[in-house]
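check this:
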Amino acid sequence: MNPGQREFEVYLPIGYTDSADHVQRRAVLRKMSGHEEALLYDTSLNAGQLVTELLRSCLVRLGDMTEVSTDAVAQLYTADRNYLLLELRRITLGDRLQASYPCPRCHNDVAIVEDLGQIAVRRLNEGETLTPIDLDLDDGYFDRQGQHHTHLTMTLPRGKDEEFVSPMATRDPLKAQDALLLRCIERFGTLPQAALEAYGVKILRDLTLADRYKLQQTFHEQMPGVDFRRDVQCPNCHTTFNGVMDVSNFFVVS
């Protein structure tokens, strides 16, 4: 990073498709200022909206777009938004982050100084297009007519999906997780779209636990972008577990 440099070009993991049907993957971010810091204290914004407004304010260019709108940022895939958020934190406050991971066994908070420059980012190859995620469940879902549905076709979440589920995340994190997954399901067996919308998250709650784990694991494994999962060892009970970096603390200076 050059002294005085405020704008930085980044390369999106997926990219967005413009009005001419071209996939745009280059963007330019500027460092956060006090105007963006004020957004962190805006209680009218839910978590998804906060990310949208932070990125909209700091994106100097998105592909060929030099006036980046709120709607454009809300249409970005979550994978690209997370990557932009990571890069925004790095260029603004540096790579060092004091992170904390709760041990699932003894509940001790494990403090680790993370190097954000070393976090893995999976990108689509140049010219590669995003394809739907296909998954066959082992036990499947029986609808009200007794029909058995096992095959799922899913897409990846976007910012607009994050904004939709964010209000319920603090009250019921599991419901928010299921609601986000449900919004990503394009087809579930032969269930009509109207049935998916009518049944809501009950469809996912009716799945066996093994199918739910398989669905979530497949979803995360096939999603490009930043891998916020970390292998952590608790110094108190020596348990090794899989932690997830809390991005809500990205802009807290420690």
In short: The radius of gyration is 20 Å. The mean pLDDT is 94. The chain has two domains: 7-124+234-249, 133-223.
